[in-house]
């Protein structure tokens, strides 16, 4: 399945990550699965800055597991590279949401990877539930503030 166009606008949330030695494989490049951790870092910081922390959601009895992910690798990162992670909330439904990501190397602005994650909202019993109303409103505001 080929996903739709993955874009993150210039106004998307941005944060950085310095590649740790432990993030790399025996070839000296970032192990492919670690990019999902970088996506999580971007998403966590976007949520913290513009909505609420994951801890806040958990304290209310909700979690947001990943139910779908897609990554398209364009170039490799290596130990000590400084990465720019751009994250945008691009879709919001009452029981799920979708984030797009692009990751660039700071030194040359080379696009390394792009992708998305889709998250469901579930309660502690694992049952699908709606976002809490206040969280949903804040997430809507994120989308409306992006072009």
Radius of gyration, rounded?
16 Å
* CATH fold node name: Thiol Ester Dehydrase, Chain A
| Portion in strands | 25-35%
CATH superfamily: Hotdog Thioesterase
CATH hierarchy: architecture: Roll
Describe the protein's architecture and organization.
The protein is an alpha+beta fold. The protein has three helices and seven strands. The model has no long low-confidence stretch (mean pLDDT 94).
List keywords for this structure.
Thiol Ester Dehydrase, Chain A; 33% strand; alpha+beta; 3 helices; 147 residues; 5-stranded antiparallel beta sheet
Question: Topology of this structure?
Answer:
Elements: E1 13-18, H1 34-50, H2 54-59, E2 62-63, E3 66-73, E4 82-92, E5 96-105, E6 111-120, E7 122-123, H3 133-145
Task: Provide a concise account of the structure shown.
The chain has one domain (13-145): Roll (Thiol Ester Dehydrase, Chain A). The chain contains three helices and seven strands.
